[in-house]
């Protein structure tokens, strides 16, 4: 596992905070006592402790917000309010509790086997997670927005895999954060 993926300053912080809060709020999360270890290992930071990086990976230490140029105009990265993150995570956790019964044990067991296989690269495991989410999303009622359903399913799978094999929490958490960042970053930014 590439440590840069899980210890990357402000990058993926929205996704990290959202997943962390989701797991805290989610019912049936049997590893809640291990969640603080994600903070102590520097994987999740309280928002006030984040040092923002600009789009080139440069640390912003002057108090200015992180941003980049788009079409010649400076665009600031969104500020994330921890209270909003927690509120949205609680709403997503409620949806997750409803979708939980749609997640078949075989899908979870197969995913556990992939996470246990240390020979698989980060990309291969992320692809396995993506495939599992897509398979499950096909069975979800169409009244739930597809992006939201897939985001919640990824989070539910994180919970279910970590429930089965708690020592995989860090690996599952960072893989899910990478998956959410790759597929739903814009969606998460619009929610927050």
- Which spans have pLDDT < 50 for at least 5 consecutive residues? 1-9, 48-77
> Could you state the order of secondary-structure elements as H and E?
HHHEEHHHHH
- Rounded mean pLDDT is 81
- What is the makeup of the main sheet? 2 strands, antiparallel
Summing up helix and strand content along with how strands pair, one would put the structural category as mainly alpha
Number of helices: 8
Question: In percent, how helical is the residue content?
Answer: 55-70%
The total of beta strands comes to 2
Describe the secondary structure blueprint for this structure:
Layout: H1 3-6, H2 13-25, H3 35-40, E1 67-70, E2 73-76, H4 82-99, H5 105-116, H6 122-137, H7 146-164, H8 169-191
Antiparallel strand pairs: 1-2
Helix pairs in contact: 2-4, 2-8, 4-7, 5-6, 5-7, 6-7, 6-8, 7-8
Could you explain how this protein is built, in words?
By secondary structure, the protein is mostly helical. It contains eight helices and two strands, in the order H-H-H-E-E-H-H-H-H-H. It has a two-stranded antiparallel sheet with strand order 1-2. Helix 4 crosses helix 7, helix 5 runs antiparallel to helix 6 (122-137) and helix 5 (105-116) crosses helix 7 (146-164). The longest helix is centred in the last third of the chain and has 23 residues, at 169-191. The two termini are 28 Å apart.
């Amino acid at each position: 596992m590439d440590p840069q993926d899980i210890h990357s300053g402000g990058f993926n912080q929205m996704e990290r905070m959202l997943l962390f809060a989701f797991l805290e709020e989610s019912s049936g999360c049997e590893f809640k006592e291990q969640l603080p270890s994600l903070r102590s290992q520097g994987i999740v930071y309280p928002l006030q402790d984040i040092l923002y990086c600009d789009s080139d990976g440069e640390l912003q230490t002057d108090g200015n917000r992180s941003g980049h140029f788009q079409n010649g105009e400076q665009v600031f990265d969104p500020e994330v309010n921890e209270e909003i993150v927690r509120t949205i995570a609680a709403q997503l956790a409620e949806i997750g509790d409803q979708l939980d019964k749609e997640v078949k044990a075989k899908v979870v067991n197969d995913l556990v086997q992939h996470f246990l296989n240390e020979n698989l690269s980060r990309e291969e495991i992320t692809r396995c997670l993506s495939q599992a989410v897509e398979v499950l999303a096909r069975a979800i009622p169409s009244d739930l927005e597809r992006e939201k359903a897939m985001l919640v399913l990824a989070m539910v799978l994180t919970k279910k895999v970590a429930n089965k094999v708690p020592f995989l929490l860090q690996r599952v958490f960072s893989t899910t954060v990478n998956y959410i960042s790759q597929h739903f970053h814009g969606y998460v930014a619009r929610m927050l």
